[in-house]
Amino acid sequence: MTALATTFATGHVGLNVAELDRSIAFYTRVFGWTLKGRGDGYAFLGDDARLILTLWAQSDGEFSAKTPGLHHLSFEVDSVADVRAVEERVRETGLRLYHDGIVPHSEGASSGGLFFEDPDGIRLEVFTGADIHGDAPSGTAPTCGFF
Predict the structure, then answer these.
(1) How far apart are CA 114 and CA 11, in angstroms?
(2) What is the topology classification, in CATH, of domain 72-147?
(3) Which architecture characterizes domain 9-59 according to CATH?
(4) Taking the CB of residue 66, how many other CB atoms lie within 10 A of it?
(5) What is the DSSP letter of 124?
(6) DSSP structural state of residue 140
(7) Hey, which residues does 34 pair with through a beta bridge?
């Protein structure tokens, strides 16, 4: 079977959230995105060039890691400095941060990042492809699979 395209990239991502204003505040603060549009029960967030995230206020409770569905959302940034900037913002929110900070993806890997949760408990990763050093929390297994 032939692939539909030579390069696949995720378009915008839609997340189901419990409190729209709380989630808008979190994602604009931590990621630096702006509010691109808003309607009754939803909001569009993005950068200068594109829509990145749509928030839908259609749930109550918290994200469940015990049911099939989204495992985590991963965002790539250009540098360790960018990952550190996100780390600082996440720490300011007081929300759950895994592994106490930036870690490699696996033992011996130079890629790695930060693993944390949004206000609804949705697991998030911000990573870069090089210059991450230290012990990997899960040994040779991918760190992003075990948080």
Answers:
(1) 22
(2) 2,3-Dihydroxybiphenyl 1,2-Dioxygenase; domain 1 (3.10.180)
(3) Roll (3.10)
(4) 6
(5) E
(6) T
(7) 46
Cα radius of gyration rounded to whole Å, the chain: 16
Q: Residue 128: which pLDDT band, with cuts at 50, 70 and 90?
A: very high
Given the structure tokens 């990952």, which residue do they identify? Answer: 83
Residue spans per domain, the chain: 9-59, 72-147
Question: Taking the CB of residue 55, how many other CB atoms lie within 10 A of it?
Answer: 27
Q: What letters, b where the CB count within 10 A reaches 16 and e where it falls short, cover 86-112?
A: bbebbeebeeebbbebbbbbbeebeeb
d(CA 115, CA 86): 10
- The DSSP output letter for 92 is H
Determine the pLDDT at residue 143: 93
CA distance 142 to 130: 15
